Amino acid sequence: MAMPPAIGLHASDGESLDGRSSLEVTQQYLERRFGDPQLRAVVTSQWADYGLPPGLSAFATHAVIASHYLNGAWYPDGGAGEIAKQRVL
Question: 74-81: which pairs have CB atoms within 8 A and are 24 or more residues apart?
Answer without folding.
Answer: 75/49
